[in-house]
Design a protein that fits this description.
Elements (H helix, E strand, L loop, with lengths): L12 H11 L5 H8 L9 H8 L16 E10 L4 E10 L6 E7 L7 H12 L3 E5 L12 H10 L2 H16 L4 E10 L1 H12 L6 E5 L6 H4 L6 E8 L1 H4 L2 H10 L4 E10 L12 H19 L4
Parallel strand pairs: 3-4, 3-5, 5-6, 6-7, 7-8
Antiparallel strand pairs: 1-2, 2-4
Helix pairs in contact: 1-2, 2-3, 6-7
Length: 301
């Protein structure tokens, strides 16, 4: 049995849960593989299940970097309260005008991998200027594999990483071709950063879409001004455990929000490089994201 034939329905929920622990640094790779080895499922070896869950970024290219309708470059920005300088992947439509909405795309907890760069290209195909910073720039950038990237990101000062993303948002907001409206979207760690940015710089962020992200610190949630579109996986105990209290705070502060839980999905369901991917939920959530950003970012400031 190979990865191409292994479907999410064939993978026990325990395996998804263990992968989530592994991906978020709660267990190491050896422990993850050892646990997979205990699965008493005919035909499913630890290596087969692991290869289905661990991202294969060759599967993640939806929009080619050679697509003639977009232009991609790498840009640096100053981050005086962070690591001094940040760097990211900027993608523009080739027919971009001087009044285009901009979207900050925030990666997971392992740096700017090919999947997140592809998401930035997808936004450009939809008419947005997209910028995806790499938190690992101070250490030379995403290293090409997730295990090393995860360790590198964990080694960096979390406060400085957050400051780098604040600086990236400020940099993008005033891009020379921006209409002055900034959206933020992020996945997992990036979902947290999306929530954090909406609360930390409410006068900069005009709309935010956190995918399976935990909330900002409760003492700054009250500062949120922008509308939120929150996307959750049904089978995501770690993140979903934080939602009840977060929703109560949003309601108490009369913050404009929408929240969607996608039935039968796993944490990371939008990431098409792994069998956690759920095409139906990913497509619907993406459609909602584009509609949301068009609604809240299309009119210039």
């Amino acid at each position: 049995m190979n990865k191409s034939k292994l479907t999410p329905a064939q993978i026990p929920q325990e395996a998804f849960d263990w992968y989530d622990e592994y991906a978020h640094g709660q267990i190491d790779r050896r422990t993850f593989l050892t646990r997979l080895g205990t699965l008493a499922v005919v035909g499913l070896t630890a290596s087969v299940v692991a290869s289905a869950l661990i991202p294969n970024y060759a599967l993640a290219e939806t929009v080619s970097f050679n697509d003639s309708s977009i232009k991609a470059t790498y840009e640096t920005f100053t981050s005086p309260k962070g690591h001094g300088e940040g760097r990211g992947y900027l993608v523009e439509p080739t027919n971009v005008t001087s009044s285009t909405p901009v979207v900050l795309v925030v990666h997971e907890n392992r740096g700017l991998n090919p999947y997140v760069k592809d998401v930035a290209r997808r936004f450009a195909k939809q008419g947005f200027i997209a910028f995806a910073p790499d938190a690992l720039h101070p250490l030379g950038g995403y290293p090409g594999n997730d295990d090393e990237g995860r360790a590198m990101q964990k080694s960096l000062d979390r406060t400085k990483i957050e400051a780098d993303f604040i600086a990236a948002a400020q940099f993008l907001k005033v891009h020379k071709k921006s209409n002055g409206k900034l959206g933020v979207v992020g996945f997992c760690f990036g979902g947290y950063i999306s929530n954090m940015l909406a609360a930390a710089i409410p006068n900069i962020v005009d709309a935010a879409v956190p995918y399976y992200g935990t909330p900002a610190n409760s003492d700054i949630i009250k500062n949120i001004k922008s509308p939120l579109l929150l996307q959750f996986a049904e089978n995501d105990k770690r993140v979903n455990a934080t939602w009840h209290a977060y929703e109560a705070l949003l309601k108490s502060k009369r913050i404009d929000y929408q929240a969607h839980v996608y039935a039968g999905t796993q944490h990371g369901f939008h990431n098409d490089s792994t069998q956690r991917y759920n095409a139906k939920a990913a497509d619907l959530s993406w459609e909602r994201t584009i509609t949301f950003f068009n609604e809240h970012l299309s009119k210039p400031s």
